[in-house]
Automatic annotation (TrEMBL), chains A, B, C, D:
InterPro entries: Gfo-Idh-MocA_inositol_DH, Gfo/Idh/MocA-like_OxRdtase_N, GFO_IDH_MocA-like_dom, MI/DCI_dehydrogenase, NAD(P)-bd_dom_sf. Its EC number is 1.1.1.18. It is an enzyme of class 1 (oxidoreductase). This is Inositol 2-dehydrogenase. It catalyses: myo-inositol + NAD(+) = scyllo-inosose + NADH + H(+). The lineage of its organism: Bacteria, Bacillati, Actinomycetota, Actinomycetes, Kitasatosporales. Homotetramer. Belongs to the Gfo/Idh/MocA family. Pfam families: GFO_IDH_MocA (PF01408), GFO_IDH_MocA_C3 (PF22725). GO terms for molecular function: inositol 2-dehydrogenase (NAD+) activity. Involved in the oxidation of myo-inositol (MI) to 2-keto-myo-inositol (2KMI or 2-inosose). SUPFAM superfamilies: Glyceraldehyde-3-phosphate dehydrogenase-like, C-terminal domain (SSF55347), NAD(P)-binding Rossmann-fold domains (SSF51735).
Amino acid sequence: MGDLLGVAVLGVGHMGADHIRRLDRVVSGARIAAVADPDLASAKEAVAGLDGVSVHPDPEAALDAPGVQAVLIASPGPAHEEALLAAFARGLPVLCEKPMVPDSVGALRVVEAEARLGRRLAQIGFMRRYDAEYRRLKSLLDDGRLGRPLMLHCTHRNVSSPPGFTSAMLINSSVSHEIDAARWLLGQELTAVTVLRPRPAAGAPEGLLDPQFVLFETEGGALVDVEVFVNCGFGYQVRCEAVCEAGSARIGDEHSMLVTTRGTAGEEVPQDYLVRFADAYDREVQSWVDATRRGQVTGPSAWDGYAASAVAEAGVRALESGDRTTVDLARRPDLYA
Amino acid sequence: MGDLLGVAVLGVGHMGADHIRRLDRVVSGARIAAVADPDLASAKEAVAGLDGVSVHPDPEAALDAPGVQAVLIASPGPAHEEALLAAFARGLPVLCEKPMVPDSVGALRVVEAEARLGRRLAQIGFMRRYDAEYRRLKSLLDDGRLGRPLMLHCTHRNVSSPPGFTSAMLINSSVSHEIDAARWLLGQELTAVTVLRPRPAAGAPEGLLDPQFVLFETEGGALVDVEVFVNCGFGYQVRCEAVCEAGSARIGDEHSMLVTTRGTAGEEVPQDYLVRFADAYDREVQSWVDATRRGQVTGPSAWDGYAASAVAEAGVRALESGDRTTVDLARRPDLYA
Amino acid sequence: MGDLLGVAVLGVGHMGADHIRRLDRVVSGARIAAVADPDLASAKEAVAGLDGVSVHPDPEAALDAPGVQAVLIASPGPAHEEALLAAFARGLPVLCEKPMVPDSVGALRVVEAEARLGRRLAQIGFMRRYDAEYRRLKSLLDDGRLGRPLMLHCTHRNVSSPPGFTSAMLINSSVSHEIDAARWLLGQELTAVTVLRPRPAAGAPEGLLDPQFVLFETEGGALVDVEVFVNCGFGYQVRCEAVCEAGSARIGDEHSMLVTTRGTAGEEVPQDYLVRFADAYDREVQSWVDATRRGQVTGPSAWDGYAASAVAEAGVRALESGDRTTVDLARRPDLYA
Amino acid sequence: MGDLLGVAVLGVGHMGADHIRRLDRVVSGARIAAVADPDLASAKEAVAGLDGVSVHPDPEAALDAPGVQAVLIASPGPAHEEALLAAFARGLPVLCEKPMVPDSVGALRVVEAEARLGRRLAQIGFMRRYDAEYRRLKSLLDDGRLGRPLMLHCTHRNVSSPPGFTSAMLINSSVSHEIDAARWLLGQELTAVTVLRPRPAAGAPEGLLDPQFVLFETEGGALVDVEVFVNCGFGYQVRCEAVCEAGSARIGDEHSMLVTTRGTAGEEVPQDYLVRFADAYDREVQSWVDATRRGQVTGPSAWDGYAASAVAEAGVRALESGDRTTVDLARRPDLYA
């Protein structure tokens, strides 16, 4: 494969630091060439012991550093648009953590900028597409054996929500994964959304509408329902059942090790997404590195990032209004056809 | 237990004939004393070989026949109201197949008649309350270990629908089971209903809206969603997941025999409700016979029958209007407190 | 079906009392006509409230009591032979709890006595043949879809053993169920047995060889292995996997209700055989009553009872010697062909 | 991590070629420095497109090639001993595919040679120790929550055996995985083995004793039984249930995606070990590369390789004799304490 791919990592927070570790120790074919973070001390600490890495307070300086051939954006969401545009300006391939851009107006600007370039540079971090179970489900739906999908029943549960988590974030942070997964699994855009609000659980922080039950309609007449419950207390569970004309398929029930003790026969439930999706993150980054070194861009596109933003925004509006809310997407540039 | 309970069976169609068999051969403590059906020949055939059974074209004549101490109503739904009132007039205990009375106005008349009597005589045939799995789920919810129920996710799938099955019948015939089960499991009345209509499956008869996705709200703020899909083609599946504040519990996944053949490890799925709920029917009738012989009435009441009718009617209206539709129940007589 | 079948129940211990309840309250078509037990007070208590039941200290007196048309033997094993022969002498149909006769010499005497009669009167209480899961497994093996069975992997676990339970009883009491089940499922006699003795569990009483691992060979070259562990502490588990030439099938994993709480997703494990096999007992007795009233005898035969004794004896010898021990069966009378 | 680790790969057959791909494209931190294979053309083809790789017909020449810092042995088993000793002579760390050395006499020579060196250089390719499920099982057994392990029930099934597969290879090729897994899970040596031979399956090649049922006894009094069935026709299944004093745990039942079609609800069964253990192979090699670059040796040792050979040999003897066969291990050098 020749030389290692020089990567600039923007942002050294939780996800950024994890990606630095992954690029250095898990993924083959890449090396960290530069990092950027306003907190210079943290940036230095994140790459301590690595050779040949330059450290910068400013993202653009990192992009211009020697040896940088690609960019991984793990800075806070509001900084993504500027970083993506800077990478585009330099012709650098990008892996950008989700959300691509938090608001759909900014997301559309990114889409339009890349469309003007006329070639794809950006891959968005919807890592479920790299999860082994989701891939098996996608493959099963695509082979047509179960017929046309009619409904997706989805569950998204977290043990507890972090401080500052808002009712809107159940949709634009948590359900955004299901938004992309549904679009990808069905190969259809989502056209309307309704949010139902059961009486909040006792375990939810005061004022947080948790759980919520979110209904999406698709351009093909399918229905996607999502239970999102971020303070369920009992585990991290991501499930998806696709109900099709000739059968149904369900992923996400953990059955890998059955433990029988007094009174129960069961399996452990992972308590964290890093446990559940560890392999998916690895595959995601590896896939990106490999494609980049071949001069290609595969995986989720900027259009996927934009569509997720747009649908999530409609979802938040539906949450606030209590009404069915349509999703209006911009025209899809030919680049993403 | 002394003498056998003399039962008059009204109606010798599919369900009536099955109940005659059950009373005669499965259930202890009962005997068939009389049957009634406008089709006298069928009625005679249904009790061929049984001693001491009188056969009548007219229900009231059967109720007045010698030895009749109780009534099992298995005639078509529109005949139920008159039969129930006739049984009430004679002070006879009744087991009445669902729907108690198809329209909620007539159902309410039955409730009021029984309330005037001042004592319960009628048990309604919601046999899921006698299913072993439902009972375990009810028991688990009642013991409080999982906390307050927030949502019920229900699935109700049939291989195919019989001729003449209408879009409304998905709700007032199929989902009526979930209506009673949800009321019973949660101990709450249902207050609103919304029906979503995904694009119909290719396997559904022309013009039938199948599947449907039905959402109920409850007086306590819980949410009940039901996928009803009566031409799914792959099996008879009834599932219910109760999502509570401290955990979830799911019934209806068939795991009793795992068969591994080339390429799959799985279980057979029953193709018929008579297979899945055979024990439940037995327990239902046995429980009724036993209680009757003790001079008691237990199990689902006329109020339960009325409430199911009323909610189903609201559901059909929601289906037709596309709108969220509230359920307005009459005041509950003290008898059913 | 005409009049109720008059049954004499011999023995009013744990099983006898349960069968009295079942005949009276669960099973249709039968009534208790007489009971016998050396402990007259207990016998009277067991039938308190039942009409028309005569109570006897002596089994033969009960058999001769008015109205007795059939016998259910639930007395201790050593009393079975005499009771069976007495029933045969009177031409009375019998349902005899297992073990039919504890020693195979006595068991063979029973077989020979019935063979001399020239017609079957006895059914032996191997109730697993009435369990829904075992029946599904038997049916699957019989239809030939999985090809010839090569191995049965069996598990038989109890929470704890009763006082006085000996190492031999793991075989002749516990594994005797697997002996009959294997013979029935495979349609083959067992020809050799080997018993392995892992180091006993800490929870086993001092001196009890628990667990044991028992290997049976069959006349057709199949292998049957049984883990028997009667102080496992965690539940009552009966499992059986049939490994065949074209697939395998496993029963006994309880999956009927999945409960998810913090850290686990699982199901309850029953703690008692009466819970697990309640339906099987009911079906067993009902089937016997029905066949008896039709003048027929179906179900496990005296030959089955004898074969179980003979194999269990060989098993105990194998346990004691540590050697592979062959099973020598008498010639099978034509009656049981 | 500094420079990439230069690896010499010996053997470019099926496994060798797969490891070359893995080192080049999956694993970070390594590069192929040299390859050796008597078939020079195949060797050249295996590294086509890779820079800086020298190709040799002779293993020792590859070990002496520039840039070689470590060795991966994937040549046929009979060549392993010489290659291991050559690596030891040069102080090179080795990852050696199983079997380390096919005969236990040669395996012991390797152990002794490494013991003379006084430091570990060799890791043996028992990749199950890197499988996520096995690691969870090991971790559960080690934490003591389930108490002392009493029995391991193992299943090892292949769809079909390759040409030339012999009855002995069911033990020394297939069951050798269970031998290492049992030793590792229990932390005990195996002391005796018995092999039972059910009548062969119709699908097994003429003359092959398939399936077999293998029983191991351990120094701690535990029992390990293995069903090995290499022409089962229905899938690749590796299962292990550990029965302990306070509970049991089972791995290997595939439940990750439940597919419901007409008449069955089930999951796909993988058809190949490369599918089932893909992650394990990756983790294995990555772990080795990482440890090697840190100057350490972790993972399965030469002693483990020797012990597996010795037990497998006893197993083959037990197969041939039909007798219980003891395993006699050499004294364990202090290096492996």
